[in-house]
Task: structure prediction
Amino acid sequence: MDKNLKRMATMQRMQVTGLALFYQNGFYNTSVDDILKELSLSKGAFYYHFDSKEDFFIQIIENLLARKMYSMLIEPLEGHDNTLDQITQCFEDALETAVHNELDFGFVLSNFVNEFNGRNDKIMKHLNDILRIWEVNLVSAIQRGKFNGYIDRHVDSEGVAVYLMSAYIGIRTLMVEVAPSARKYRFMSQLRQYFKSLEPKAKMV
Result:
C-alpha cells in the first residue's frame, strides 16, 4: 500500500509539473528532459510511469485538466434554478483567478486546442471531450433557467452556450497581457447586459 501511495504521489507531482511547463511553453516546445530537469528525476523514472510524452499528456488531461475545468466552469452551475446569476458568478470567479495569476498564459484548454488542432487527433479527441461536456452543461443550465422562468422560453439554448464559451475563451486571451482587471470588468458588465436580454419580457420592465 505504501508503495502504491508513493507511486501515486510521484505521478501527481510529475503531472502537476508537466502541466505547468506545457501551459507555459507549449507541448511541442517542452521536452521530456525539460520535465525531468524540473523534477530532478531520471529518464528511467519517467518511463516507468508513462509510455511516452503523449501518454503523459493524455493522463494530465484526464487527471488534472478535466478536473480543473469541472471544478471551475461546470460544477458551480449544477443544481441552481437561476442559472443566469450562477453563470455570472462562475465567470466572475474564474476570471478573477486569472487576474491574480502572475504567470497567465491564457485559457489553458483553448491554448492546447489551438496547439494540437490538425497535429494530433488522439489528443484532440480528449480535449474536445472536455469542450463537449462544458457545452452540454451550459445548455442544460440554460434549459433549466427557461424551465424555472428566469430565461425567455424562445431563447436558443445551444446558441447561447456556444456564444458563452466563445466569449469566455476570447476574454481570457485578451486578459493575458493588457489590463486584465479592467478587461474583466468591461466583459462582465457587457455579459450582465446580455443576460438581461435573455430574461422573460415580463421581467424586463
Q: What stands out?
A: DSSP finds nine helices and no strands in the chain. The chain has a mean pLDDT of 94.
